[in-house]
Amino acid sequence: MVLELKRPSNPTIGSLLQDWPTWISYFASYIFIAVVWINHHFLFKYATVVNLRLVWANFAHLFSVSLIPFDTDWMAETRLEPVPVAMYGFVFMLVNITYRLLMRETISARKQPDQPATRLFRLRSISTILVFGIAMVVALWHPYIGFGIDCACLALYLRPDLRGIRS
Q1: Contact at 8 Å (CB) between 132 and 93?
Q2: What is the C-alpha separation between 135 and 16, in angstroms, rounded?
Q3: Distance between CA 62 and CA 57 in Å, rounded?
Q4: C-beta separation of 31 from 154 below 8 A
Q5: Quick check: 113 and 107 in contact, CB under 8 A?
Q6: Which is an annotated Pfam family here (predicted)?
Q7: Which of 21, 60, 80, 146 has its CA 20 to 30 A from that of 114?
Q8: Alpha-carbon gap, residue 136 to 153, rounded angstroms
Q9: pTM as predicted
Q10: Using CA atoms, how far apart are residues 95 and 21, in angstroms rounded to an integer?
């Protein structure tokens, strides 16, 4: 993503601030990718068995994450226009759907899955999928609000809460 950042046309603060959609898009996406990486890393600490379904769920999740730079650049180029911002919500909804699949495969591969943790995962993932869906729709009429909802939804994943799972 950093390769898509372009230098301002003039060496002034005003010129730098003029490109605020690029900087905010990049910053939000960087934080999203960091959160995805942390949660992915934390989840895989609890994988006890690797099977083909888990590997394919992981590939699906990595594919959905690979769409983030494309949409980040599109949002920045269009200065947060409605369709690119709605697509941003869609990409993160897809990231969450594939993360849910990955969680399900990781937990179900365990010999003794923890039921409270499974319920926590299900509740958190379904609620964020719904919130990203709402953000997509809102973004079509109010892109800044839709983008704000996307960013606020990130708070639910800042801490990979797997207290209930024991290795």
Answers
A1: yes
A2: 28
A3: 9
A4: yes
A5: yes
A6: TMEM175
A7: 60
A8: 12
A9: 0.85
A10: 22
CB-based burial label for 167 (10 Å; 0-12, 13-18, 19+): exposed
Q: Which residue has the tokens 């999928």?
A: 129
How confident is the model at residue 166, as a pLDDT?
A: 47
Q: For residue 159, give every residue at least 6 positions away whose Cβ sits within 8 Å of its Cβ, in sequence order, or none.
A: none
99-153 pLDDT, tens per residue? Answer: 999 988 887 766 666 667 677 778 888 999 999 999 999 999 999 999 999 999 8
Rounded distance between C-alpha atoms, residue 9 and residue 122, angstroms: 47
The backbone torsions φ and ψ at residue 80, rounded to the nearest 5 degrees and listed phi first, read 65, 45
Query: In the structure, what pLDDT confidence band is assigned to residue 88 with cuts at 50, 70 and 90?
Result: very high
CB 117 within 8 Å of CB 165:
yes
Confidence of residue 167 (pLDDT cuts 50, 70, 90): very low
Residue 5, token pair as written in the block: 């950042």
Whether residue 156 contacts residue 127, with contact meaning beta carbons closer than 8 Å, is answered with yes
84 close to 78: Cβ distance less than 8 angstroms? yes
User: Which of 83, 64, 73 shows the shortest CA–CA distance to 28?
Assistant: 73
